[in-house]
Predict the structure.
Amino acid sequence: MVTMPKRLVFLHTVSTLVAPFNRLAAEILPLGSRPREVEVWHVADEMLLKVVLAEGRLTPFAYRRVAEHVVAAERAGASAVQLTCSSISPCADAARLMVGIPVLKVDEPMVEQAVALGTRIGVAATVRTTLGPTTDLVAAKARQASRQATVDSLLCEGAYAALLAGDMETHDAIVRAALFELMARNDVVLLAQASMARVADTIPEAERRVPLLTSPRPALERARDVLAREE
């Protein structure tokens, strides 16, 4: 009997995340000895983030658009859908009601780790539309765990504009400064966007006064566990 591979569909709001998630998937997702036991597909819809940023919030369009992608993924044979942008994470809650497959938030596993590690939780983001949902998720997960948590949110002013201009040096310098500021006054620090993980990787362990958490790896580890259960 031929065993069909599990299929994980990533939904990105920026195409530059396809490559790093591909690398992580190759490392983390195989569930057994067969190299194609998990098949990865990518959908990059940059219009989603552009509209969210233009409106400054999640609109009915964003919820509908994410749901359409999730429904299409299920019809195409997806075993699960992984959102990779924290700005659209709240859309997963609505999309889950429309399909029979898991719809995973990229920041949820990271936030759960943070709540378990400390009560003073710093959150850094380069766009306000990501800062809000991640901050709200921290508060919600703390309540679920019956833990007290103080959320210290910091917007990396100017970093996103530098990124759009292709000035990676300025972007990285602003983000690094924000991370050191948050580490100085919190028990744990979260990077709200998957695209920021690269900057965290440049900070040596010896300079990390507190745990510095990024979302891609915990998200893929959660996806691996979810796929293993979906028999």
Observations:
- The chain is about 45% helix and 15% strand.
- Strands lie at 6-12, 38-44, 80-83, 103-104, 120-125, 150-155, 188-191, 212-213.
